[in-house]
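Hey team,

Sharing the Extracellular solute-binding protein run so nobody has to redo it. Sequence (357 residues) first:
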Amino acid sequence: MTGITRRGFTLASAATLAVLGTPGFIGRALAAQTTLSGVEWGGPYIDAFKQIEARQSAVKVRWELHASGAAAILGKLKANWPNVPYDFIAAYDPVFTAMINEGWAEPIDPALVPNLRHIPTHLTLPDAQGRARVVPRGLSGFYFGYRSDIAPLAIERIDDLLSPKLKGQICWPHPTQMSGLHIVALARHAGGDEHDIEPGWKLLKEIAKAGNIGRVAQTEVDFINSLSVGETSVSFWHLAAWANVAKNAPVVHLTKRPGFTTYLSTTGWVILPTSTHKEATAAFLNHALEPENLATYCAVVGEVPASSQVPVDESMQQMKFSPEESRTYTNLPDWAYLATRVNEWTQRWETEIAHLL
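Structure output:
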């Protein structure tokens, strides 16, 4: 794998060089007719990036939305590789790991995305030469929460999910979402973890048999809509999704509560080695990391910015952990292992849980 190199980039046209000559600006001369193909989540994510795209004129982006959880794109890549139409894909930790392991993440010379210098290097999952393989944009966490205005009871412990008062009130993510981390959360509560998942499946079956799952969310938009309109009131999802629900209703974020854990992750992009527009893609992603644009993204989506150039909004206080709080209430999952379990857990959901709903 050759990667996007500084030398290769300098061999590009003078018009292309104009991009790096003006930091943060994608020059009009850079292949004005270039159309990039990107994969992004729907809802607030695509809303944010349409705004960001409109702030430059060098490229157009043909957007495709993740059909369900981001992990679903892996099967599509596997089935069609190397004949895939994408230049870049938005994803998060487990998908990054899987793409890197498959050789689907193009190494990037940091000089081509200069805004990476404001992002902790370890978040870029660099290769042996120090080239980023991921372009991080936001930091997030996955956790339980509920709408305090309509939930039949205040959730004080995970066992409350079995309460008869919650009949039909839980919006539960499909296993393709978050690499099954919501099942891991149940397992950890019951004495297991991602490597000992049986306690989680046992508890999930009890919740399903109790009739408390009122909606299975195939996508993040499903979750946001269900909680926002009041169809359900309790769920497990990530910071950005909860932030969007909180725009319309009061939300209790169970991030710093005894008995609850927040699972940490990074969102960002991978450039594919099969892309025929690698330099233009790198320039566009650098544009997206400009402070004004990244601030727009974080405000619209509801994430903590990965860049030190963008301040953390006060509305994200639930994701600010002191060192002691971090040790007590957060966990960094084994994302690489989770990525290997998605297909098996999806099949298990269909055979053991779906018929109980």
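Residues 143 and 230 are 19 Å apart (CA to CA).

Ping me if you want the raw files.
A.
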